Automatic annotation (TrEMBL):
<dbReference type="GO" id="GO:0005765">
    <property type="term" value="C:lysosomal membrane"/>
</dbReference>
<dbReference type="GO" id="GO:0022857">
    <property type="term" value="F:transmembrane transporter activity"/>
</dbReference>
<feature type="transmembrane region" description="Helical">
    <location>
        <begin position="149"/>
        <end position="167"/>
    </location>
</feature>
<keyword id="KW-0813">Transport</keyword>
<comment type="function">
    <text>Lysosomal dipeptide uniporter that selectively exports lysine, arginine or histidine-containing dipeptides with a net positive charge from the lysosome lumen into the cytosol. Could play a role in a specific type of protein O-glycosylation indirectly regulating macrophages migration and tissue invasion. Also essential for liver homeostasis.</text>
</comment>
<comment type="subunit">
    <text>Homodimer. Interacts with lysosomal protein GLMP (via lumenal domain); the interaction starts while both proteins are still in the endoplasmic reticulum and is required for stabilization of MFSD1 in lysosomes but has no direct effect on its targeting to lysosomes or transporter activity.</text>
</comment>
<dbReference type="Pfam" id="PF07690">
    <property type="entry name" value="MFS_1"/>
</dbReference>
<feature type="transmembrane region" description="Helical">
    <location>
        <begin position="115"/>
        <end position="137"/>
    </location>
</feature>
<keyword id="KW-0812">Transmembrane</keyword>
<feature type="transmembrane region" description="Helical">
    <location>
        <begin position="30"/>
        <end position="52"/>
    </location>
</feature>
<keyword id="KW-0472">Membrane</keyword>
<feature type="transmembrane region" description="Helical">
    <location>
        <begin position="59"/>
        <end position="76"/>
    </location>
</feature>
<dbReference type="InterPro" id="IPR020846">
    <property type="entry name" value="MFS_dom"/>
</dbReference>
<protein>
    <recommendedName>
        <fullName>Lysosomal dipeptide transporter MFSD1</fullName>
    </recommendedName>
</protein>
<feature type="compositionally biased region" description="Acidic residues">
    <location>
        <begin position="198"/>
        <end position="207"/>
    </location>
</feature>
<dbReference type="InterPro" id="IPR036259">
    <property type="entry name" value="MFS_trans_sf"/>
</dbReference>
<feature type="transmembrane region" description="Helical">
    <location>
        <begin position="82"/>
        <end position="103"/>
    </location>
</feature>
Length: 240
């Protein structure tokens, strides 16, 4: 809902905010406004990343990001777009800084590449699907205001999915919300209790079962990461 918005941001700003501005001037103005999002992200991402590493609470930060994005989409047709785009920039900064470390925190090192691949595939699916939906809504409604309602709905749904992920993580020990410094190198791999002396002899056979919980967490997180960033990702085409 952030990056896909930038796919139609130029047309949205011209239609809603600058319908009477001269063509040359409106292109400059819209370009300046659209650059706010990535400017905020460029400045804020290192700070957000450091804070999230120290504090943890990644899912809480994701929920805050979804909430800020939803509020920004309510604000976009109503108040100065500079403020709304700055809020979207903060939302994007927090989202990117929180969601990608979840992949590494969820799976063991030998599965990190596959995990990132699945997450990126889910993200790209969202990026491919969202513009089609947006184009249909704009064509049917005849206004970008309906598109903004659609983005707000996505934000609300993302908050709901984030709450479910948070509840699931709490039942699984709170791994995804733990600070980076509290996790050792093997923290991504859950340990099963040793019930007897024979368990050591079967350790090689228990490997797949030990990862099943992490794999289920990964699938849940992939939905949030991919589809939300799919809701949060096509962008720069709108400038072209």
């Amino acid at each position: 809902m952030i990056l896909p918005f930038n796919n139609i941001a130029a047309a949205f700003f011209v239609e809603v905010w600058y319908p009477t501005m001269k063509k040359e001037a409106v292109h400059i103005r819209v370009g300046q406004i659209m650059g706010i999002l990535f400017g905020v992200s460029a400045l804020g991402s290192p700070i957000a990343g450091i804070c999230i590493d120290k504090l943890g609470y990644r899912i809480h930060f994701l929920l805050a990001s979804f909430t800020m994005a939803s509020v920004a989409h309510v604000m976009l047709p109503l108040i100065d777009p500079v403020i709304s785009m700055a809020l979207l920039g903060i939302s994007y900064t927090v989202f990117a800084s929180a969601v990608w470390p979840l992949v590494a925190a969820t799976v063991p090192p030998r599965k990190t590449g596959a995990a990132y691949g699945v997450t990126t595939a889910a993200q790209n699916f969202g990026l491919a699907l969202t513009p089609v939906i947006v184009a249909h809504i704009r064509s049917s409604a005849g206004s970008y205001l309906a598109v903004e309602r659609f983005f707000f709905f996505i934000g609300t749904a993302s908050i709901g999915v984030g709450v479910l992920l948070w509840m699931r993580d709490n039942r699984s020990g709170g791994l995804l919300n733990s600070p980076a410094r509290s996790r050792g190198p093997d923290a991504a791999q859950p340990k099963l209790p040793v019930e007897g002396p024979e368990s050591s002899d079967d350790s090689d056979d228990m490997g797949p079962q030990e990862l099943s919980e992490a794999d289920r967490l990964l699938l849940t997180q992939n939905i949030v990461a991919g589809l939300s960033q799919g809701f949060v990702g096509v962008q720069r085409r709108g400038q072209g």
